[in-house]
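User: We ran a pulldown and think these components assemble together. Before we commit to crystallization trials, I'd like a predicted model of the whole complex to look at. Sequences follow.
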Amino acid sequence: MIEQAAAFTPQLGAAPVTRILWLVPALPVVASGIVALLKQPRRKPAAALAIASLSLSLLLSLFAFGHVLAGWTNHLAVRETVNFTWFTFGATGVDLGWVLDPLSAIMMVMVSFVGLLIFIYSVGYMEHDENFTRFFCFLSLFAGAMLGVVIANSLLLLFMCWELVGLTSYLLIGFWYQKPSAAAAAKKAFITTRVGDIFFLLGIVWLFAQTGTLLFYNHEAGCLEPLALGGLLAQHAAFGLTAAGAIGLLIFCGAVGKSGQLPLHVWLPDAMEGPTPVSALIHAATMVAAGVYLIARVYPLMSAGVPLIHTAEATGTTAALVVVTWVGAATAVFAALIAIAQNDIKRILAYSTVSQLGYMMAGLGLGGVAVGMFHLITHAFFKALLFLGAGSVIHGSHEEQDIRKMGGLKVDMPFTFITYAIGMLALCGFPIFFSGFWSKDGILEAAHTGAIKGPYYLLVFGALLTAFYMTRQVCYVFFGYWRGHQDAHESPRVMLWPLAILAFFAMALGLIGTPAWPWFRSFLEDHAAPFSLHGFAEPGLVLLMTMSSCIVLFGLWLGWKLYGSKSPKPEAPDVLEKAAPHLWAGLRDRLYVDEFYGVTVIAFYFWWARVTDWMDRRLWGGIVRLVVRITSLWAHLNRLFDVRAVDGSFDKACEEISTGGGLLSRVESGRVQSYLRILAIAVVALAAVLFWSSMP
Amino acid sequence: MLAYVIYISFAGALAETLLPRGKNAAARWLALAVAVAGLGIAVEGFASGMGQGREVIVDAAWVPAMGIHYLLLADGISRVLVLLTGIAAVAGILFSWNVELRTNQFFAFYLALIGGVYGVFLSGDFFLLFVFYEIAIVPKYFLIAIWGSTRREYGAMKLALYSFAGSAMVLIGLLAAYTAAGSHSTALADLAHAGFSAHFQFWCFPLVFVGFAILAGMWPFHTWAPTGHVAAPTAASMLLAGVVMKLGAYGCLRVAMGVFPRGLDPWGFTFLGLGSWRGVFALLAVIGIVYGALVALAQSDFKFVIGYSSVSHMGFVLLGLMALNQIGLDGAVLQMFSHGVIAGLLFAIVGRIVYDRTHTRQFAELETMHLARRLPFAAWAFVIAGIASMGLPGFSGFVAELQVLTGAWNARPWWTVTAGAGIVVGVAYTWRALQKAFFTDNVPAPHVLEYEHTHKLDPMTWPEVAGVALLAVSTVAVGLYPRILLDQIEPAVRALLAGGVQ
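Assistant: Here's a predicted model for the assembly, 1198 residues in total across the polymer chains.
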């Protein structure tokens, strides 16, 4: 494969389509700005504007994709960048820019395509909402920010768009902020992801301090290019990590927050309080996948130090990648377990998303960019399909979300049922015909060949659980008889078309990632993709596929056997609950992670806040009061001294002077006779003195 | 030309006192006209100063016997802060449009305060700077004591005492430096080149630095800030947080660090792990960042939250100063501007838009009022101000704090790590305040809805909308295109660093 890669010549200059690539995120943002200024009742222009702008973005993305594809067929490794300086300090500039390479091209097309379908679907779903225009304003802003994350060629620009994505996610989860649970969920999502983001920010600062640039690719001067990586590898941080690995892990913390990995997954299920299209777009297909995309983007950092041999047998690994793998695998199983015991149709899907994101992370950690990204792309389609299908179910059954109060919908909503079933089989990884099978198999295969076997067993167990809980959900919702209040009805056309399109891709996408024609991997890794059935001949591969198929079928069978068409009463306990009530309660209450955080981290913060508040009021306030007391005591002492000592002597002196004056004043009586008398005495005395002194 | 910002403000203050009683509308418009004129001059000075470096505006002998000059200077840092003062002044007047008590006196004190602040930022002479600094303190006391709320005499007195304690320390430093220099000049540039001994700077630097830093809200000398902010009328708290705290930080940078740069040198011994004043003040700054944020999290009064957030954000300014490198100092100055605008906006929303309508700032009472529905404009304005305050990209706070953090990382990585924890808490207290004040958890009962329907809160007025727009546009403009300010700040900071601060 090395030889094949070498045949691809690097492509440096920027084609016209790359130069205008900024329009891809800019168009939806501008549309959002215009919609924000529209008056509330103007529904049609708002929706039309949002959809039109995203369609243009999609068109442009397709052009860009075509450009990369054309380069690829001509054996050119396309990686075109446009960079500019945002601001400078001293001799150092902070640069931003965007990049067009296979990774961003594929992601860009996926985001704008799935986004467009969900926009269209929203026109139907949000039809009766009074804040229809605000919804499209936020949705467009989100799409713009997300596309910004995708094309960013600078970690800083990526982070900025990343935060904007988080903000719009906050706004959209809390869209129905009149619902207290929605407002709380929005706050929780924002704060939880922010916790990860702070580590991400520290990683950025560290990277910048080390390499002096945040551009990914900049003609050999970017931070993901060999020169900078070499410098980072030479540095050793704590715990046996290189600086590259440590920075990579800090960045991974950001991805953990955004992609709902353990231990920061708590916000994602709560985020289902938002409208269903939001759940589909943001919390299934795009935003949560941004974490995975981020790791794929900075993969050279994570894997720095591994000899560049990408053969299936000897995938080298680094400490950072091992962490990614374990976190992903643990999340995959953990979330799948919880999903079994949930009864809210959207919450089941939410935990399933958390679990699948774990698969993607594990795929990145074990098999590299192509493996993780392939599952990201296929998952985006079938999970969006499932969420939109769930939305259709909720819409059709009058805002009911509890699967125990549904049932038999395959008759009332046949179209939704068929598409939902396709999505569900793709998610379970039903063999051959569904994309999920191929993408998940890629991960399992990578896990199987890896040096450590732990993640492999976890992931296989997760696959069994996935098939089981999805069967349970489908049995509850579509089989048996209707247990709701009013009769259910099928959704309008505008909501069904996106389902059909997504269902098509949920099946067809598998074609580009089979071992016989690994086009997806070849495209991302810049080498040619010949079609040959020898791909299946790799040792153990067919055996592995058969085994994973058996596991999926076993999960499906088990689910059907336990739930089938039985239609239990909504109040009746679940079959598993009867079997193991304590375990069930634990799973239903999400293994008490939220409660755990409540009594530890959050309680600690508030306790600490109260302590500091107390310090401010009592300690510092006390010191201030003490100083005031001392000063005022001193002041009183001074006053005492003033009154007694200073004023006393002053008064005494005044008194003396006053007395003296009184004595003297007697002389001045105003009588002429006495003046003359005194004058006469004085003259006599003077004469006597003169006479006396003239005496010899 | 830039000097006229000072004269026009004092002239405006004088004119306000001469207005006949009862002409409230005239007083308002006069004040607005004066402030807008000041802003106009500031903008003009800012634009024409681009690429000019340091320039002398006025230089006249004042007290020749002591070598005191009336010397006004402007460099990039001054211009940025003068611009900030202009913006804050206009916004403050817009948010004081409903002051009916002794209106003309209110604006007279207000403009006098503004004039003093402009003076400090433009002074090139230590003594002149000190005079303007004192002029700025006095009107603050009256603004709070006469037009304030919650424990206003206490708050006003506490603030005045802290300020005067600080200026006493500065005065001692000034006299000591003047005597030690022996050059019969109080110009900052002359003092900076006086060649003070390391021993002299060792004790004089912290004296002056702390003297100014008290006004910048440095922990643990910060407690005047929250009580003062809470007691102050809206416009005064906007100015307090917006520009007066910047006076302190500016003094730290321009005077303490500019005149006594060797005070930052290592002591040559360590005490409790600290080896220099730099380490000490950076530690206090980092503590202030985390501590202020935590205290804000525990408040039940809306305005106290913002008051403590100012302590936290000013910690970033001090941390940036102590990073002692280009990016850290750039970030510190930018953070002064950014915090001035954002804190002004937050105080305006809490003090004017919400409090003047609901007459309470207690979360427990605000929670029952469903303000998001009844005051949607306020809710949205607070969302914007809140995300700007927590340093989200696209707003000025992000660029500023990112630079401070990078600068601090280059100096000591653990400063950045600890300050990062403060940012997380910052998100928490902002969202907590937002949710408690606007997006409440309880669903209103029908009779409450009925009541709210019949007792509508006053609608927004144009000055409020204009003020919010002015401040929000400022922070977004700088957030998206920080070069507007950085191109001015950067050479000035470089000159300062070349002048010995390193």
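Residues 4-498 of chain B form one domain. That may be worth checking against your pulldown data before setting up trials.

User: Thanks, that helps.
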